[in-house]
Amino acid sequence: MSESQKDFEPKIVGFxxxxxxxxxxxxxxxxxxxxxxxxxxxxVMCSGRIDPAFILEALKNGADGVLxxxxxxxxxxxxxxxxxxxxxxxxxxxxxxxDFGVEPERVRLxxxxxxxxxxxxxxxxxxVEQIKKLGPNPLKMEAKE
Amino acid sequence: MANEKVGAVLVVGGGVAGIQAALDLADSGFxxxxxxxxxSIGGVMAQLDKTFPTNDCSMCILAPKLVxxxxxxxxxxxxxxxxxxxxxxxxxxxxxxxxxxxxxNEDKCNGCGLCAQKCPVEAIDTYNKGLTDRSVVYxxxxxxxxxxxxxxxEKCIGCxxxxxxxxxxxxxxxxxxxxITLKVGAVILAPGFExxxxxxxxxxxxxxxxNVVTSIEFERILSASGPYGGIVLRPSDGEIPxxxxxxxxxxxxxxxxxxxxxxxxxxxxxxxEAIIAKEHVPTKLDCTIFYxxxxxxxxxxxxxxxxxxxxxxxxxxxxxVASITEDPATGNLFVHYVGEDETPRVxxxxxxxxxxxxxxxxxxxxxxxxxxxxxxxxxxxxxxxFTPLETSKSGVYVCGAFSSPKDIPESVAQxxxxxxxxxxxxxxxxxxxxxxxxxxxxxxxxxxxxxxxxFICHCGINIGGIVRVPEVVEYAxxxxxxxxxxxxxxxxxxxxxxxxxxxxxxxxxxxVVVASCTPRTHEPLFRETVREAGLNPYLFEMANIRDQCSWxxxxxxxxxxxxxxxxxxxxxxxxxxxxxxxxxxxxxxxxALIIGGGVSGMTAxxxxxxxxxxxxxxxxxxxxxxxxxxxHYMLEGEDPQEHLxxxxxxxxxxxxxxxxxxxxxxxxxxxxxxxxxKIRLNxxxxxxxxxxxxxxxxxxxxxxxxxxxxxxxxxxxxxHELEEKIAKGEFNAKKVVMIQCxxxxxxxxxxxxxxxxxxxxxxxxxxxELNPDAEVFVLYKDVRSYGFMEEYYRxxxxxxVLFINYxxxxxxxxxxxxxxxxxxxxxPVLKQEIQIEPDLVVLSAATxxxxxxxxxxxxxKVPLTKDGFFLxxxxxxxxxxxxxxxxxxxxxxHSPKFIDESxxxxxxxxxxxxxxxxxxxxxxxxxxxxxxxxxxxxxxxxEFLCPYGAIEMIEKEGKTVAHVIEAxxxxxxxxxxxCPTKAIILGHFTTEEILAQVRAILREMxxxxx
Lengths: 145, 1010
Description:
By secondary structure, chain A is α/β, with parallel strands linked by helices.
């Protein structure tokens, strides 16, 4: 293992829906709630737009973790039910990930509302800690070998 | 014909209130003339560093509005000018204006600033409150709108250097003042306020001691564009202070000066300045605020106050400062005050900030005379509770701090409200004097290689103070297809919009990327800019390097800079693939649905009907009136029930308003301009209505206390129940104890319920009126009688009502001992516990969200705050909008508020709704799904998944394929994600674009180990 567990800083890609989670991340910003700089955000209009292929592409390209965040269940979704679609897709993907030898915990689904800046920051903090424990993405290690 | 109406409005004052009123009017079909005394618009808000309670950057949220007003085809800015006189009547006025000379030809000046660079003379910089100098030929601030220079002729030596260097030949030394006459149908007054002149409180040493500054000066010190570039320094020696004090109520709540009122915003802005100062000072900074009552009465203000204490360690001392003296050797200051234990104390500080109150604007008498309006005893504009936006002259309306001291969101709400009033005055003239904005023909870029321009914002020091912006610019230049990159102090300012348009031409750019703040607030502005330069608006993308970098990684400049590069790289990768999209247009149903028939809902309904729009007004109860039905008398003396009767009568008799009582809205479908909703009527049957907008006016309810024996002892009442008793003539108690903050400002509900202090004072005065010998005790945490309400607090205290402070640690205790009602509380002056036996205990129970809010929020897809009130689109500048287009809110659904505030918000919601209802057709978002018919297998998965029924199956060339009904598609992209053949493409968020972003992010992403 080239990267020692201690110095390992996970790379996380976050897919956030425009209306709740991205707004929550904005609120973390204006409220100056500090969180670790390990996440890079991609904005989509709805969590229901997030194709499992995006998540796999991120893992394939070396992301150690992927955050999918949308509007709270059951009824906060700006597009009525996109969050349910995200839920189904992510749950299914997690099952498939095991077969690839990727820990399902690397993919995390969270509901963050526009008023939850503190929750967004807490999720990122917690996820960084969790993935530090898991170590680097095994797919990336394979690619290196 | 002399009394023909005119479809134009004069707005006096170009601060945030004036700008909001102007934009609402101009966006709904009226011509606007905006007159401002200063050479550019923006008012006081343009001088502020941050805003409470979100710590949003003031210039960042204001600049898009400045730009929008500056480039609106139906707003004419008449700056450096004053109103001389007004003739005529509502609907048809003639107004005389003096345009003072700038000595620079406004039509020729292009704002290049060469004159200011070459000007050899320095003058005092009024924008920076005299803390620095500026050239004699100047603009007030770099983002000024209009960006036209002015010569300060008092200081000018007439060397004519500026005339020589000006390439536009705009300098005109002999320019004279001129007078113009305009015809308008209505007038809106928004001249704002003047900060109190701190020299009048001579005991505080302002202007004698260099390190005593006013709050507005301190805003400039905190600002990146301020005298010290955003570094907090002492004016005397340029040292970084370690210990600063804020002195509250300077020029407010002061009988000596005659300013009896409270200035309403100072507590919050001082807390904000203390928080921001601590953020700006790298070393340890101690902040102390000396106050009488902390008046954090607004939406989520108390949570902010709590954070200031717990998270930032700001110290709060309840004391009125007696005097300030200086140590001439060090420039340090001694603050003399009486401590909470009643002993005199002296404490040394490096710097003192005087929280100066609001006064009427200067020359207010002259303005009042020119317009023929009345002023109140404090020389603010006279209004009344039920007509808070109307002056004494018909057709002349008022908003913002000119009618009473107030903060930004309330000024903005009032501004939209005043716009509604003006709209109704001249409704038939709508659309007659306005021009439609013309854009240059769109360039066809389909055959061009991507040529990307990247504009990276310093955002003052909000970004540039943490992220190394020049490094990111250099990095951006290395990215594929980037042909141009630059940095800007504020990318959103008017001058930068001009630069972006120029650079698009100069470098033949066909994609534009801005790295700054959030697209949720600023994307529309930049899309408009690229459109004005002949590019399709969707050839634009944004990287958010403020909310996602500098503000959340404040202590990690290296990581924040690297992250900014990653985000720019990712957005550039997406930009390379961007395709032009077309904005479909949809027709608008000019009808409103209003949920809630209280004073807010009824007012909004009438305001819209007065403009000729049809309204469906749905009330859950069997009668109209809501909360107002429980109010029997007012502090100010008006009769609320009489007003309610009038309002109900006007609503019931108006043919355009359909009232549904005992009814509920059970389903809302559709989108802005085209909603279809179901109302469950009283009998149970359902009625479908079509409408273009929704206004949420569902009000709030009184908390039913669980504490202080409420419900267990009939002598324990709420304020409403007491009022009811008094109104029915059943009140005969001789000794009454009122307990404030019941169910508010606690763990469960951290925020203030705003209206209870006023209620308690009102009822205490009523008791004293009925029986001057009755004893009334008010046990409070802070008395929050803000604004002009302060005089009633004073009156109550003067009539012997005893106000006694309690703290969370020592709450009063109410008990029933053998049938005797007892209240025990700690008396902080006597320093002992006191027990009394009152006839009644009255609880100031909080106003809490309507329990139905959750259902309504889910039905409308709009968010709630953590407290359960509705969450507006932006706390500061969009107080009655939701982020969802076509849905608005007003009244207590937003947060607890007094009747006049609900009325103002209701009028505001009506004006905002009218900006949509007044249009025949709306331009919609171009982000919709599209079907590649060659790839489509006709499997119908998308049809089944689409929550809007926007996909239909059609027969095409013998094959069944999916087809998107554009008007119904909202662009969520659920269909495309599920499509097994990838035949559905969601514009602007295509699979290729998102995958390119993913790959670009991870290509070079490194997170440094710590």
